[in-house]
Amino acid sequence: MPRVALVLAAGITGLALSTPAQAATPKNDSAGTPQDSSAITLTGADIKRIRLQNAPKPAWKTALGFAMQKRGIPYVWGGTSDRGYDCSGLMLRAYEDAGIELPRTAREQYGAFSKKIAWKDLKPGDLVFFSNLGHVGMISRPGYMVHAPHTGDVVKEEQLSEWRRTAFVGGVRPDPKGVRRWTELKEQRDAPAPARLTATL
């Protein structure tokens, strides 16, 4: 299966395409001897699954994974390590782990992106800013964010309350290409697979 995935991911067109009925009938060589029946036959559903499995992981998913792994670590003002994080320090290190550089403070992080994201358009991986840019978190799933709240608390995932909405300043999307690509992959995942197409190696 890994070799099949590699062939498809590389875009090599050396696959023999057939209908399921054709694929089920072994072919004979010039002497009339059946050819090796150990060839791998992939259905349209198999091909779809392999393409989705081999899609590159977007930066925002890496950043979100980093932030979620830090749950339970204490809030430390000015902290940017596992000894403790403040709100912007957690965002800084999370996206740094994904290969995207952010400024140090919440205000600078908000100002680093010209396009702002409205409350209704927030998606996982987006940074959300509150209280006159005094606090930042990251959307973890619809209606929730992961953040380092304040002294005496720990990094945690928290539901976005009505109070948070009233204090909301705006959001930014550090990985817009990754968000778009992930949306496309979800649409591909939800779409039906080709019913009759098979590929045989």
Automatic annotation (TrEMBL):
The keyword Hydrolase applies. Residues 1-23 form the signal peptide. Keywords: Hydrolase, Protease, Signal, Thiol protease. The keyword Protein biosynthesis does not apply. Residues 57-175 form the NlpC/P60 domain. It holds the Pfam family NLPC_P60. InterPro entries: NLP_P60_dom, Papain-like_cys_pep_sf, PG_Endopeptidase_C40. Belongs to the peptidase C40 family. This is NlpC/P60 domain-containing protein.
